[in-house]
Amino acid sequence: MASPSRPGLDAAELATVLGEFTRRSIRLPATEKRSFTTLSVLHTLAHKGPMRLTTLKASEQITQPAITQLVSRLEREGLVERQPDPEDGRAVLVRVTPAGAQIVRTRYEDRVRRFSQLIEALTPEERRTIGVALPALARMAALMDTER
Length: 148
Hints:
With about 150 residues, the protein is mainly alpha-helical.
């Protein structure tokens, strides 16, 4: 039900539905089995490019020791690498390797396959409704990035 101040869209209902959708979509069967934090770090680096540990820590909302430990493990696994920051010789940037980027691509392809199956189970009207909502959801996602 919509709130009086925002006709047509209830923020609590949106939070509930998107929360449940996110929880379930994260757990879709996948070829690459990795922790959510690992996948999030790889996705962030693959889509936003190399970044300092402090920036990555803030993006992923985890502690400095946790991000340092995670990046060290991913580096040992060949999924990320550290390189000197060209703007500050004392700092390093973390970047995703081709192997790490492949994990991100594989997870995306797995998700597209599963969503395609789920879309087939929807009615034509449900498919149209979701299609119409996608630009607004994309805009909300972009607005979330500007609030950091």
